[in-house]
């Protein structure tokens, strides 16, 4: 008798489930069609986003990440609509709440990593520098060899590879030497000259400096008397250097000091 009751109970349960399944069959078919259509739409949307982002950023990593996020977003939208068609409203609410809690927890757990990724995305779109540019940031100067979502790799002037987190680059000043075609060099020194020598010394210094390598020829070379230091006159030499290479500044400064020293020696001022 007991086995018969158990069998009857199991039969009623299965029968009830089958009735519910039959009633929900049209909705299930519609939900499956909706989910299928959204998956197909997500694939097209993924390709479109990849092409659009690649056109703007010219970076495969950013384009691939954006395309994957767009694909998952469309798939989740399709899943939520399909669950709504199946009248599983509570399931949709639970999924949304769970996704929010998980996202918040991951955001706190990986906030540094997230900050580097977001900074990498901003750097990619704003393009303060590109691969091959010579930049100066965070105390390092070198050529940009690689820009990734998390970090940027520099090759310094002494051949070292430096990997800098994008967050540090984004939050601190950047000097891009490749975007600065010319750079000013200023040299100040003292010389014991008389009034009769002032004009002639200016001409001599300007003439000796204008043909130096790396000096921008279309820019004027200024030789100014900027002060008096006892029996000496303070002289300031200003000229512009072609900044297509970061080493040009040091080379030009070396050449200026050499020429100024030679000129002063010729006039027996030192």
UniProtKB/TrEMBL annotation:
Residues 76-111 form the Mechanosensitive ion channel transmembrane helices 2/3 domain. The keyword Cell membrane applies. Gene3D superfamilies: 1.10.287.1260, 2.30.30.60. Its main location: membrane. GO terms for molecular function: mechanosensitive monoatomic ion channel activity. It is found in: Cell membrane. Keywords: Cell membrane, Membrane, Transmembrane, Transmembrane helix. Residues 112-178 form the Mechanosensitive ion channel MscS domain. It holds the Pfam family MS_channel_1st. One of its GO terms (cellular component) is plasma membrane. It is a multi-pass membrane protein. InterPro entries: LSM_dom_sf, MS_channel_1st, MscS_archaea/bacteria_type, MscS_beta-dom_sf, MscS_channel_2nd, MscS_channel_TM-2. It comes from the Bacteria. The chain crosses the membrane at residues 20-41, 62-83, 95-118. Belongs to the MscS (TC 1.A.23) family. This is Mechanosensitive ion channel family protein. It comes from Chitinophaga agrisoli.
